[in-house]
Amino acid sequence: MNSKDNIATFKYWFHKYLIPSLKTGLLPWFEGRIYSGHETPRNKPHPDVYLAAMQGLQVPPAQCLVLEDTLTGIRAAAAAGATTIAYRTPNNPLLTP
User: From CA 25, how far away is CA 1, in angstroms rounded?
Assistant: First the structure.
């Protein structure tokens, strides 16, 4: 198993950030590992989308790192048992100090 076998992304992030920059060559790192809350029984703040990604990657929650920019996503990732790093963006006033 190589390192890219243990990486996943989520559809919103993929379409917003990766699709516009496909020239970077990042697509192979995520092919077959793009998840969406719309494909799970419940969306965030429930942990379903993260649990689906963990199951798909066959990685236990304690070995997962999630980067999130929303309170709902932070709650969902934490509920899934992943280490979660919150970051803020200029468009996300909820995480602004």
Answer: 20
Secondary-structure percent of the chain, ordered helix, strand, coil, rounded to 5: 50, 10, 35
Q: Which residues of the chain have pLDDT under 70?
A: 1-24, 26, 93-97
Tokens of 52: 């689906």
pLDDT (0 to 100) of residue 64 = 92
In whole angstroms, give the CA distance from residue 51 to residue 41: 11
Query: What does the buried/exposed string (b/e) look like for 25-62 if buried means 16 or more CB atoms within 10 Å of the residue's CB?
Result: eeeeebeebbbebeebeeebbbbbbbbbbbeebebebe
